[in-house]
TrEMBL record, chain A:
Enzyme class label: transferase
Keyword Zinc-finger listed: yes
Composition-biased stretches (Acidic residues): 273-282, 328-339
Keyword Zinc-finger: yes
Compartment annotation: Nucleus
Functional summary from the UniProt entry: Acts in a DNA repair pathway for removal of UV-induced DNA damage that is distinct from classical nucleotide excision repair and in repair of ionizing radiation damage. Functions in homologous recombination repair of DNA double strand breaks and in recovery of stalled replication forks.
EC number assigned by the record: 2.3.2.27
Recorded family membership: Belongs to the NSE1 family.
Biased composition (Basic and acidic residues): 254-263
Organism of this sequence: Rickenella mellea
Stated name of the protein: Non-structural maintenance of chromosomes element 1 homolog
Catalytic activity of the protein: S-ubiquitinyl-[E2 ubiquitin-conjugating enzyme]-L-cysteine + [acceptor protein]-L-lysine = [E2 ubiquitin-conjugating enzyme]-L-cysteine + N(6)-ubiquitinyl-[acceptor protein]-L-lysine
Region feature (Disordered): 243-362
TrEMBL record, chain B:
GO BP: DNA repair
InterPro entries in UniProt: MAGE, MAGE_WH1, MAGE_WH2, MHD_dom
Biased composition (Basic residues): 326-337
Full protein name: MAGE-domain-containing protein
GO cellular component, one term: nucleus
Pfam families: MAGE
Domain of life: Eukaryota
MAGE domain location: 24-84
C-alpha cells in the first residue's frame, strides 16, 4: 500500500481494476474511464502523461491492454449489443478450464438453472430465441434441486441484474450480449445447430431478421440490417427483393408465437450424437434443413455428422453431448481451432454450406 | 515506461528457452487467473487449493510460481496476493499491544509462528493510496455515462440496477454496499471496544441499530438472496474472514486439559452468548485495516457534529428574516467562521482519532 511511487504504468493498472469492478460497460464509458485514469495518475503522481481523444490512441491502448491479458487467457473484447446496436466492452475469459469455474458466486444449482434456461432459449421454436418467464420458472421443477419457484424468481432477476439475461417489456428472457460473447464457446459446442451467424458481420444473431425466401439461410442483426438497407434492398444471399424490409420475418421475441412456450423442448441426450432430436417439430423451421442437422431425416447424414465431430474433436470424446454436462464456464477442450473453423465455414459461403460441411469432413 | 516494458518482454523471451521456465510461466499465469476469479467469491484462497488447481504434483516449486504470479499481478493489474495472519499471529499481535516487553519476550516464538502462516491469501490493490482515493471519488462524466448505460438497457425496472456513483472503481457494481456499510460499523464497534466485543454486547449494539435477531439484511437484485437473516450474515462474514467468532473458556471452569468436562459443557456453552466473543477477522486486518476504520469513525462523528452545528445556525438565521442588519452580520460571522471551522474540524478530527485509538486499546494495527 502506497510504498511504490506512482508511475505512468499505473494508468493501465487502474483501468484494468476499473474494468474488473464492472466487467461489462459501454464503449463510451470505457473511453471515459481511460481518460479519467490518465487524469488521475497524472494528477496524483505529478506526471506528464499524453492523452489524445482519437480512435488511434484508444485502439493502441486497447491493443496494449490485450497484449498483457493474452497470456492469462483473458480479453477485453468489443461487442455490439443486439438490442440497441451499441458498442460495448466485456472482460472475457477465453479459456474454459477448472479454474474458470470459480469466476462466479453462483451455486451449482443456480448454474444448472441458468443452463436450463439458456437451453430453452436456444431451442425455442420459430427463431424466437426467447422464453416467457412462466416457462423459465417451469425449468426449476426439471432440476434435481430444492430451489423453489419463489427462489427461482429471485435468481432469475439476479441473472438480469448481473447482465447475463435480458428481460423485455413483454417479460420474455433472452441472451444478453455479455452472455453471447462470454459463453460463445459453450453455445457453439452445445447448440451449434441452433446458433445462427449474421450474414453481414458473422457474429451470433438472436435478434434480427431473416430472408423471406423459404430456402434462404440469411440471418442479419437488426443493427447490421439498418446499415445494409441504406444502400441495398435485396437479400445478400439469394437476391430476393426485400422492399422496405417491413415484411421480413423476425428473429427474436417478435418471432415467438402465442402459446409456443406451453410445451417444454428437450433434446434427448441418451443416445449418440446423431440421435438428437426435439420433442416438438415446427413446420416453419423445417425450411432450415441443411442448417439444422438435428432435423435432417436421413440417417446416413447424421452418421456422417457424428463422424465429423469425432474427427474434429479427436477420439478422446466420442460422445461429446453426453459428456458435456459441466457448468457453462467449465467447457473443456473447446479447441479454438474448431471454433474458428466453424465461423469461417459459415462465413465464406452461406448458400453452399453443405459443401462447406463436406469439405470439413475430409 | 516503454523501456520498462521492453525489458520485461526481453526477459520473457529469454526465459522461454527452457521447458522448466515455460512451465513456471504457465503455472504463474494459472495462479493469477485463480486469484482473480476466486476474489469474486470474497473467500480467501487456500494454499491447498492452489496446489490442487495450479501446482499439480510439483508443489515444491510453489515459491517460485508464487513469486512469478505476484510479479504479473503487480505489473498488469497493480494488485498483490497477501497472506492472511493466522489466528495465533493475530492473538500475539493483540497481546503485543499491551506492552513492548511481552513482544520482546515472544520474539523467539514470533519467528516460529510467522513461519507457519495461515496459508490463505486474498487479493488486494497495490496501487498508491492517493490513486485509490482519487479513483473512489465521484466524477461527473463517468456518472453521466453510467446512468446513460442503465437507462438504455433497462427502461423502467429501477429495482434491477443498483445505484452508481461515477467513480473509476465501481464499488456499487463490484460489492454489496448496504451490507458492507453494516460490516464496517460492526468493525468500528469491535475496534472501539478494545478489539473484543462480547456476543451479548454485539446483540445489544445490533438492536440499537434496529437489527434485532429477527431482522434481515437487504441486498441488491444482483444477489440470489435479496435478504439474509442477521445471523446468517454474521456467519457469512466469519466465513469470509472479516469477523472472528471466538468461543472463550468459562473462567476457571473448563481448562483444555479437562477434556471430558469441557466436551460435556459444550452444548450448553453454545447457547450461552457470554462465552462468545467477536473480534476482527484476518481479512479485515489485511483488507480494511484498523487505521482506516478509525479514520472512518472520526470523520463520521466530526462530520455529524459540524452538520448539527450548521443546521442550528441556519435555522436561527431563518428566524430573524426581517432583521436584515442582523442577517448580514450573521453572514459575516459565518464567513469568518468558515476558516475557523476548518481549523476546528482538523482539531476535532485529531481529538476524535485520539479517542478512538484510546478506546481501541492504545495502539492501532497497521494494515497487514
Amino acid at each position: 500500500m502506497g510504498k511504490d511511487k506512482i508511475s505512468s504504468n499505473d494508468v493501465q493498472r487502474l483501468f484494468l481494476q476499473a474494468v474488473i469492478s464492472r466487467r461489462y460497460m459501454s464503449e463510451k464509458l470505457a473511453k471515459t474511464l481511460h481518460r479519467k485514469c490518465v487524469d488521475t495518475v497524472k494528477f496524483a503522481g505529478g506526471l506528464n502523461i499524453p492523452y489524445e481523444d482519437t480512435v488511434g490512441f484508444w485502439d493502441d491502448f486497447i491493443t496494449k491492454v490485450n497484449r498483457s491479458l493474452d497470456p492469462l487467457d483473458l480479453e477485453f473484447k468489443n461487442v455490439v449489443d443486439e438490442v440497441k446496436g451499441r458498442k460495448h466492452y466485456v472482460l472475457v475469459n477465453t479459456k474454459g478450464d477448472e479454474i474458470a469455474q470459480m469466476a462466479t458466486d453462483y451455486t451449482p444449482a443456480e448454474i444448472a438453472f441458468f443452463k436450463a434456461v439458456v437451453e430453452q432459449i436456444m431451442l425455442s421454436p420459430n427463431l424466437a430465441f426467447s422464453l416467457s418467464s412462466l416457462a423459465a420458472l417451469r425449468e426449476v421443477s426439471t432440476l434435481k434441486s430444492t430451489m423453489t419457484k419463489t427462489q427461482a424468481e429471485v435468481v432469475l432477476s439476479s441473472f438480469v441484474a448481473k447482465g447475463w439475461l435480458l428481460k423485455s417489456k413483454k417479460g420474455r428472457f433472452s441472451l444478453s450480449a455479455r452472455t453471447i460473447v462470454e459463453l460463445e464457446p459453450y453455445l457453439r459446442s452445445s447448440y451449434n445447430e441452433e446458433l445462427l451467424d449474421c450474414t453481414i458481420c458473422s457474429e451470433v444473431v438472436t435478434k434480427g431478421i431473416t430472408c423471406v425466401g423459404t430456402n434462404c439461410h440469411t440471418y442479419i442483426h437488426m443493427h447490421c440490417y439498418a446499415v445494409y438497407k441504406r444502400t441495398k434492398s435485396s437479400c445478400p444471399t439469394c437476391r430476393t427483393e426485400w422492399g422496405n424490409g417491413s415484411s421480413l420475418p423476425p428473429i427474436g421475441e417478435d418471432a415467438a408465437k402465442p402459446g409456443q412456450d406451453h410445451q417444454r423442448r428437450v433434446r434427448r441426450r441418451s443416445g449418440a450424437d446423431g440421435d438428437e432430436d426435439e420433442d416438438e417439430m415446427d413446420p416453419s423451421q423445417s425450411q432450415s434443413q441443411s442448417q439444422d442437422p438435428s432435423q435432417e431425416p436421413s440417417q446416413t447424414q447424421t452418421q456422417k455428422k457424428g463422424k465429423k465431430k469425432a474427427a474434429a474433436k479427436g477420439s478422446k470424446k466420442t460422445n461429446g453431448r453426453a459428456a458435456r454436462e459441466e457448468t457453462p464456464e467449465s467447457e473443456e477442450d473447446n479447441d479454438d481451432e474448431e471454433l474458428s473453423q466453424n465461423i469461417e465455414g459459415m462465413d465464406i459461403d452461406n448458400l453452399t454450406q453443405d459443401k462447406g460441411r463436406s469439405r470439413r469432413k475430409r | 515506461m516503454e523501456d520498462d516494458q521492453d525489458e520485461d518482454e526481453d526477459e520473457e523471451r529469454r526465459g522461454a528457452g527452457g521447458d522448466e521456465e515455460d512451465e513456471l510461466g504457465r503455472k504463474a499465469n494459472a495462479l493469477v487467473r485463480l486469484a482473480l476469479f476466486n476474489e469474486y467469491k470474497r473467500t480467501p484462497l487456500r494454499r491447498d487449493e492452489i496446489n490442487k488447481k495450479v501446482m499439480g504434483d510439483q508443489t515444491r516449486s510453489f515459491n517460485a510460481v508464487f513469486q512469478a504470479a505476484q510479479h504479473i499481478l503487480q505489473k498488469t493489474f497493480g494488485m498483490e496476493l497477501v497472506e492472511l495472519m493466522s489466528r495465533a499471529e493475530r492473538e500475539r499481535e493483540q497481546n503485543g499491544n499491551d506492552g513492548t516487553e511481552a513482544g520482546e519476550n515472544a520474539t523467539g516464538l514470533k519467528k516460529k509462528v510467522a513461519a507457519a502462516g495461515s496459508k490463505t491469501y486474498i487479493l488486494r490493490s497495490a496501487l498508491h493510496e492517493n490513486l485509490i482515493e482519487a479513483a473512489a471519488a465521484t466524477d461527473e462524466l463517468i456518472l453521466e455515462d453510467e446512468i446513460m448505460g442503465i437507462s438504455e438497457d433497462d427502461d423502467e425496472d429501477d429495482d434491477a440496477n443498483p445505484r452508481t456513483y461515477g467513480s473509476i472503481l465501481s464499488w456499487s457494481s463490484a460489492d454489496e454496499l448496504g451490507s458492507i456499510g453494516l460490516l464496517y460499523v460492526l468493525l468500528a464497534l469491535v475496534l472501539v471496544s478494545g478489539g473484543v466485543l462480547s456476543d451479548f454486547d454485539m446483540k445489544k449494539h445490533l438492536k440499537s441499530l434496529r437489527l434485532p435477531p429477527s431482522a434481515q439484511v437487504n441486498f441488491t437484485a444482483k444477489t440470489t438472496h435479496k435478504t439474509m437473516a442477521i445471523d446468517a450474515y454474521l456467519a457469512l462474514l466469519v466465513r469470509q474472514g472479516y469477523l472472528d467468532k471466538v468461543r472463550v473458556a468459562n473462567l476457571g471452569a473448563s481448562k483444555p486439559t479437562q477434556g471430558k468436562r469441557g466436551r460435556g459443557r459444550n452444548p450448553t456453552a453454545d447457547d450461552d452468548s457470554n462465552n462468545i466473543e467477536w473480534k476482527w477477522g484476518s481479512r479485515a486486518q489485511s483488507e480494511v485495516g484498523e487505521v482506516a476504520i478509525a479514520d472512518f469513525v472520526a470523520e463520521f462523528l466530526v462530520e455529524r457534529m459540524l452538520h448539527a452545528q450548521n443546521v442550528d445556525e441556519e435555522s436561527s438565521d431563518d428566524d430573524d428574516d426581517d432583521q436584515r442588519g442582523n442577517r448580514r452580520r450573521g453572514g459575516n460571522a459565518r464567513k469568518n467562521g468558515r476558516q475557523t471551522q476548518e481549523e476546528d474540524k482538523d482539531k476535532m478530527l485529531e481529538a476524535m482519532k485520539k479517542g478512538v485509538v484510546l478506546a481501541a486499546g492504545g495502539k492501532l494495527n497497521e494494515l497487514k
